[in-house]
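In response to reviewer comment 3 from the previous cycle, which asked for concrete evidence that the modeling workflow produces usable outputs, we include below a single protein chain processed end to end. The sequence was submitted unchanged, and the resulting structure tokens are shown without manual editing.
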Amino acid sequence: MAFQLPDLPYPKDALEPHIDALTMEIHHDKHHAGYTKKLNAALEGTGWENRTIEDILANLKDLPADKQTAVRNNGGGFINHSIFWATMSPNGGGEPTGAIKHAINEKWGSFDAFKEAFAKTAATQFGSGWAWLGYSKEEGLHLHGMPNQDSPALHGHVGILGIDVWEHAYYLNYQNRRPDYISAWWNVVNWDEVNKRYAAAKG
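The workflow returned the following structure tokens.
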């Protein structure tokens, strides 16, 4: 069964003024849709079409060699954006609560210290890529800057919260001011969803 482009969980203008409607339209309807279509094309005929995207990326080396790059790029783009939309909300922002708050404080000492470390990871990711708060049984919570559309799933990890720092994610509104975009993005983080993803990852 082919992968489907997920609907946005809110209207395209719902995250304004932090993320503008035109950026959301292009980002979701063009970029994410493109990754989804190319992922399906790359997997066609491989026998991997019915596996989860997490399973596919974690076992990428077992795919036919001529499919691996396309699946890495487009599969990463598919899962990364699916998490990105879900972990934002027009009612987001503020500080985390519940289990994720406790885990962040335990790892980084405070939310402010975590926020600073995450923002630095995002701001200093060279070129196109992502900053991720990931989780694995071995490492617990951890931060990673990842190039292109690489995903925590490539390492068998769970992406708990990620920010897209490709220029297409912010350039219409923020031009080259990536730190301003990162600062504004905190206002739409959906901590309830982040908590759900953390709980599911821990099992």
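Strands lie at 129-136, 140-147, 158-164. We consider this sufficient to address the reviewer's concern, and the full set will be provided in the supplementary archive.
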